[in-house]
Design a protein that fits this description.
transferase, mainly alpha, ubl conjugation pathway, 37 helices, ARM_PUB, single chain, three-stranded antiparallel sheet, Herpes Virus-1, RING-type E3 ubiquitin transferase, ubiquitin protein ligase activity
């Protein structure tokens, strides 16, 4: 057998070690275990390098074990890349243990084979190194903290009371000391359980449910230990927010009738959770109604107890959703700091490289993703530069805010309804309205009115009609109803509109197809409806629209596929169902908005390692390199996607072959802060991949801009620039040493 599997393993070990060295910190759960495994792999890599240097053919057993370890290392690396501070620390520890144990077991087996391989040459140092690796891998202790957690979960399952000392050890190890840390962990676990319930993964659900019970128990223990005392006074339980465990400063009532601190429940809702934290019941709506009675009682209590009743910075600031500052991992070593347009909008390509937030949190941030209200094909053409098009610079943006929600409710209460598809048709045909006035009216009607079950059922009947006109009108109205209003989405999804909308994706009428795909896109904002859209077989019909639809339909099909790809299982399915090639074609020849939609979808697909090769093989790199031209409006977007593709060998070689190196060096020198950061990351991957690329980068004059970047870039850009400069220095020192010898 050839050395391919061995070289692939060495390359992936290098990337894992690099990731752990520069990414893992005390904030990452199971930090010690990751560093221990990285140390073991460093020693093993020395032995594997010796084998590769001899260029001797591998035996079948050695080749198979290399492949096994390669798979294990890749799984652990990808898991670490996906972890973010928004995810559960306890679950991370539990899920990390089997991944690292798999590496340990495979390392033991590989070390044994290597020892036998070097036995005929006992004088070499390789045998000694192999023996050291075998001993170290056998003695490595992995999963101690995970063992403690599993022990307490078992105790709780049996109904016994856990040891307080062991419980505090877990709290301290995972840095869950404060109320806000506990709240974040509680929300993260609840979010994981919601995902598991949607995907019906029983095994995961059982473990997550036990973990929810554990964190609830820890929170209760903290309350009993006077954890929430204020100014030396114990807060009455009815004045304490069930979520934040703090004195409520701005109490609000949710649909279930329970009262919470506004910032805490808003954080809960912003994470996409749709149940009441206390009762577990599904919330019929997400309106937050001020509880003036409770607030008056709390104010009175504070006056009597002489407690200052004012906004608590610790409570308000920490409880607020910080989508601008949270780090969500993605790609090679989590090099991209997330950028989000606003606290209520989805991360987008327009913001440069905010892609990494997409896999974990984008779906919870969306509130409106319909783009261009179209009364007719003619209006669509004449008004493409006005109306909602201005809200969407090639990405998915939000126009939802708390104030919008209030107006939604008030408008509905006033009796303004827009529910009849026939009324919509009459409005469209009304020639007395100008295009812009019609667009404005449609947008207002779609965004500020609630619908009813009976109205939606009538629309669904029209969707199933044999009349193309009725189908088009009904699909368009559902599109508008679902555009802004969360309650409308829930009602439409519950009434069974998804299946007929999916069937219309195969319509021969382009406008019907476009309205149907955009309606599905808007409905997919709701997490549960999104899962239902995928479960009812929308992937292949969406790809069909992406292949043969008109320009608007293709763009929205790309956006809908992106929305579905936020669910891990569909990220895999979409990639395997043939979506990559039509997305690359849209990247090649679509409008600016279309190219941005395609790039967004391709980025999210590229988070799944297997899809990276598909994207490269479909020819995306060539078009992305062209889009790095300084005159392009997509420089930052192209560089961000290339940063993901550069984590595979084929991606690096294609970037170099397509002439990407000079452009990357230019971006490091003159690009935006985000562009510089991602360009430096790609250059680092190229250098790690091959000394030949390293020389090309040096020949392009990369050192001066990298020195400047290491001094004045973003924190992560500085880190990448410093790593590159260190790499150049090591290469030079190595060349000098070889020359002397």
């Amino acid at each position: 057998m050839d050395l391919t599997s061995l070289r692939c393993l060495i390359n992936n070990i290098s990337r894992f070690i690099h990731l752990v060295t520069w990414r893992v910190s005390e904030t990452v759960p199971a930090e010690k275990d990751h560093r221990s495994i990285a140390s073991l792999l460093k020693h093993l890599k020395l032995v594997l390098d010796d084998v590769a240097d001899h260029k001797a053919p591998l035996g079948e057993a050695l080749s198979k074990e290399c492949i096994k370890l390669d798979v294990a290392v890749n799984e652990a690396r990808e898991f670490l890349e996906r972890w973010s501070r928004r995810k559960s620390k306890i679950l991370c520890v539990l899920q990390t243990k089997p991944l690292l144990l798999k590496i340990q077991v495979s390392s033991v087996n590989l070390s044994c084979i290597l020892c036998r391989l070097f036995e005929p040459s006992p004088s070499t140092s390789s045998l000694l190194n192999a023996q050291i690796c075998m001993q170290e891998s056998q003695n490595l202790k992995i999963g101690e903290l995970s063992g403690y957690i599993e022990e307490i979960l078992e105790i709780r399952k049996e109904g016994r009371i856990p040891d307080a000392g062991r419980l505090m050890l877990i709290v301290e190890s995972l840095n869950l000391r404060s109320k806000q840390d506990l709240l974040s962990e509680f929300i993260a676990i609840k979010k994981e359980r919601q995902k598991a319930e949607d995907s019906k993964t029983t095994g995961d659900l059982d473990q997550i449910s036990q973990t929810v019970d554990l964190i609830s128990y820890i929170r209760d223990c903290m309350v009993k230990e006077n954890f929430i005392d204020r100014n030396g006074l114990r807060i009455p339980p009815y004045f304490r927010c069930p979520l934040s465990l703090e004195l409520m400063l701005d109490p609000v009532i949710v649909a279930s009738g329970q009262t919470y601190e506004r910032t805490a429940i808003r954080k809960w809702l912003d994470h996409g959770l749709v149940t009441c934290p206390k009762t577990g019941n599904l919330l019929a709506h997400k309106n937050l109604i001020p509880n003036h009675t409770v607030k008056a009682l709390i104010t009175n209590w504070c006056d009597v107890k002489k407690v200052e009743f004012s906004n608590n910075p610790d409570n308000a600031d920490v409880c607020s959703v910080r989508r601008h500052s949270e780090h969500i991992p993605c790609a090679d070593d989590l090099q991209y700091p997330p950028q989000v347009r606003s606290s209520t909008s989805i991360p987008s390509l327009e913001d440069g490289h905010g892609f990494e937030a997409l896999s974990a949190s984008a779906s919870t941030a969306i509130t409106s993703i319909d783009y261009l209200p179209m009364a007719s094909t003619e209006i669509s053409r004449t008004s493409s530069k006005q109306g909602d098009a201005s809200n969407r610079s090639g990405d998915i943006t939000s126009s939802y805010s708390p104030s919008n929600r209030v107006s939604d409710s008030s408008t509905s209460a006033s009796g303004k309804h827009y529910n009849s598809s026939k009324r919509m048709a009459e409005m469209v045909k009304n020639g007395s309205h100008s295009a812009s006035r019609t667009l404005s009216s449609l947008s207002e009607l779609g965004s500020s009115n609630l619908t009813t079950t009976s109205d939606v059922e009538k629309l669904i009947e029209d969707l199933k009609s044999a009349s193309s006109e009725l189908q088009s009108t009904a699909a368009r109205e559902i599109r508008f109803l679902a555009k802004y209003n969360m309650e409308n989405r829930f009602i439409i999804g519950q009434c069974g509109a998804i299946t007929p909308l999916i069937s219309l994706l195969h319509s021969d009428v382009e406008l019907i197809q476009e309205h149907a795909v955009t309606a599905l896109l808007n409905l997919s904002i709701n997490e549960k409806i999104k899962a239902r859209i995928g479960a009812e077989g929308a992937v292949e019909p969406l790809i069909h629209v992406l292949r043969i639809g008109n320009a608007g339909a293709k763009e929205n099909a790309a956006a809908a596929l992106f929305s579905l790809s936020l669910l891990d299982e569909y990220r895999i399915k979409i990639g395997r169902s043939g979506a990559v090639k039509p997305l690359v074609r849209l990247l090649q020849s679509g409008t600016l908005r279309g190219m941005k939609d395609a790039a967004t979808a391709l980025f999210n697909l590229s988070i799944f390692h297997e899809n990276k090769a598909r994207i490269v093989q479909a020819g995306a790199v060539k078009y992305l390199v062209r889009l790095m031209d300084p005159t392009s409006e997509m420089v930052d977007k192209a560089v961000a996607l290339l940063a993901n593709l550069s984590t595979i060998t084929e991606g690096c070689s294609t970037i170099a072959r397509e002439g990407g190196i000079p452009l990357l060096v230019e971006i490091v020198e003159t690009g935006s802060q985000r562009g510089k950061e991602n360009a430096a990351s790609i250059l680092l991957q190229l250098c790690i991949s091959s000394p030949k690329y390293c020389r090309s980068i040096l020949q392009e004059g990369a050192v001066p801009p990298l020195v400047a970047l290491s001094l004045s870039g973003t924190p992560r850009a500085k880190e990448k620039a410093q790593q590159l400069l260190c790499h150049f220095r090591r290469q030079r020192e190595s060349a000098v040493t070889r020359g002397r010898s």
